[in-house]
Amino acid sequence: MLKQYEKFKVHTNGATINGVKGGSGPPLLLLHGYPQTHVMWHKVIDQLAERFTVVATDLRGYGDSSKPEGNSDHRNYSKRVMAEDQVEVMRELGFEEFYLVGHDRGARVGYRLALDHPERVKKFVALDVVPTLLMYEKTDMVFARYYYHWFFLIQDAPYPEELISQNPSYFLETNLIKLARYQSISESPFSMEAYEEYLRCFQLPNAIHAMCEDYRAGASIDLAHEREDLASNRKIECETLVLWGENGVVDKCFEPLEEWKKFANNVHGKSLPCGHFIPEEVPELLLEELIAFL
Predict the structure, then answer these.
(1) Is 3 exposed, middle or buried (0-12, 13-18, 19+ CB in 10 A)?
(2) How far does Cα 182 stand from its chain's mean position?
(3) Rounded-to-integer distance, Cα 156 and Cα 133, Å
(4) 3-state DSSP of 153-184
(5) Where would you tag: which of 30, 71, 176, 253 has the fewest CB atoms within 10 A of its CB?
(6) pLDDT at position 147, please?
(7) Residues 67, 83, 178, 48: is their CA dihedral positive or negative?
(8) Torsional class of 233: left (φ above 0), alpha (ψ -120 to 50), beta (otherwise)
(9) What are the CA-CA distances from residue 119 to residues 50, 80, 265 (Å)?
(10) Catalytic, out of 32, 42, 74, 276
(11) Catalytic residue among 58, 64, 85, 104
(12) At 201, is the secondary structure helix, strand, or coil?
């Protein structure tokens, strides 16, 4: 998919990041969520490329990016390190500052990038998340039931890796499709071609371990970094747009704008009539919001 775009691989400090680039205009970085790849933007990237030079990458541990073995403290999958990957990618491509849109895990990498590298990010869009620390601290039965993978994937290696690897296609289907069906306005928002790409990458060597490490970092070192931010009142300075699905878990369990105000000084946003997978469920509505904001 996205064959019309230039492919690239950039070697960063500890990983090789895969991605595509195309279009013309100011640079725009798109970061995907779990358990997907840069292909998740396929319904909006062409229209964005008419106005921006679009860069869509696979996060460290996902897609065709490299999948290093996790450290004992999961530091090499911290959102700080994953954000540094993206800074290095954009610098290598010639972009010192850029617009940034992230969904799910990509939004978590995105807000760490905006916090740690404020000179890089002109505007930031977060899709269907609130900051990780606040989600864990406010966990209830609804959240735990539908985001159970947040608690399963963080278990010590190799427990989740071994269980998932026994039938990865079944796990992906139940984890991804079940979550989509619970929240989505359609039976499934994923095109067959996109889903096949997610499955291909999910079954690559070390992919399951890498995704577990992403979540292990999210439940350990990432929380320490966010506590440090709150303690020092360190916030995202650039204008920030938060969009979330009105049928999703984020809407049911949290007050997204109120939560984001604890981490961003200039934030606004709204819900959209969809579930979690905004770029694949309501691409036209998302494009309207992104073009108006960016």
Answers:
(1) exposed
(2) 20
(3) 20
(4) CCCCCCHHHHHHHCCHHHHHHHHHHHHHHHHC
(5) 71
(6) 92
(7) negative
(8) left
(9) 25, 15, 15
(10) 276
(11) 104
(12) helix
Interaxial angle between packed helices 79-92 and 105-116, expressed in degrees from 0 to 180 and rounded to the nearest 10: 80
CA distance 43 to 107: 18
Our answer to whether residue 276 is catalytic in this structure is yes
Confidence of residue 249 (pLDDT cuts 50, 70, 90): very high
* Amino acid at the residue 179: L
Amino acid letter for position 145:
R
For 256, residues 6+ apart whose C-beta sits below 8 A from its C-beta are 130, 242, 244, 250, 269, 271
Contacts of 189 (CB under 8 A, 6+ apart): 180, 274, 275, 277, 280, 281
Q: Is residue 279 within 8 Å of residue 40, measured between CB atoms?
A: yes
The pTM score is 0.97
Q: How far apart are CA 272 and CA 274, in angstroms?
A: 6
For residue 35, cis peptide bond before it (omega within 30 degrees of 0)? yes
- pLDDT of 231 reads 97
Residue identified by tokens 């205009």 is 25
| Confidence at 182, pLDDT banded by 50, 70, 90 | low
Q: Does the annotation count 32 as an active-site position? A: no
CA dist., res. 3 & res. 257, Å (int):
37
Q: Average the pLDDT over 261-283 and give the result.
A: 96
Structure tokens at 111: 């807000």
Is the CB of residue 286 less than 8 Å from the CB of residue 278? yes
Task: Supply the mean pLDDT for the chain.
Answer: 96
